[in-house]
Give the backbone structure.
Amino acid sequence: MNPIQPIDGTALERIVAGALTEDAPWGDITSNTLIPADASATAELAAREPGFFSGGPVLAEVFRQVDPSVQVDLKVEDGAAFAAGDVLAVLSGNARAILLGERVALNLVQRLSAIATQTAAFVAEAAGTGARLVDTRKTTPGLRALERYAVRCGGGHNHRYSLSDAVMAKDNHLAVVTADGTRDLTEALREAKAKLPHTVHFEVEVDRAEQIEPVLAAGVDTIMLDNFGLDELRAGVQQVDGRALVEASGNVRLETVGAIARTGVDIISSGALTHSVRSLDLGLDIRISAEFAERVAAPAAGGEAASS
């Protein structure tokens, strides 16, 4: 497995802090009422179904913020497959701290592992074709950095991160710039490209074959064939003939991605990698330490002896 580009640390810290504040703005009243402050515990993060793991750094950050003394022992690397019943991580430390961070940790790791699992399935369908599976901006608001990390854990790749780091002229952009009928599409795209630094990637989406030549004439880096059928994709790849990268998008599902990859496209983008996954069934099973259990049991035993 290739090394996985790590999560942006600043984004991770911000996301986790926001999630913890949302879930326990004034602390965990239940645990603080029921659990002694010095109770210690061990908890196992266990898989209840198979998948691919993503979220080791998230687990570590959640409990770093809750209580740095909680130890997080990862049993599975990010990007690795696991089976139902596998223990993915073991937590040990203050019981209140583990209970406070439990739901935030589970919510995030379950979702990220689901994205990694979905991505791995797509990548497997396209294996051997040379096509690169990439995500889109169809991510959960506020969680993009984590969800795109999960795509990488599943063997996929990331598209442009935001509206700010690459030009992607889509159908609505093209409709606006050519609306008055006085501007030629190629001319409009050339003018736009001339305004850009040479380091900025320029991609244009087309939804019909007759747009391909005018777009290529503008010298774009990538041409996206949107909602093209399989025969249309094959014809489009032949027409482009290496003059730009060819991306396929639209109607990309697990059932279709293999056939799309075999048309010869360079890139396949799919919002399904992130926008509609079902969180994996993972559970956190907590156990009170034997030492603390003995301490709790001792007074009770003494009381019984006195009453007898």
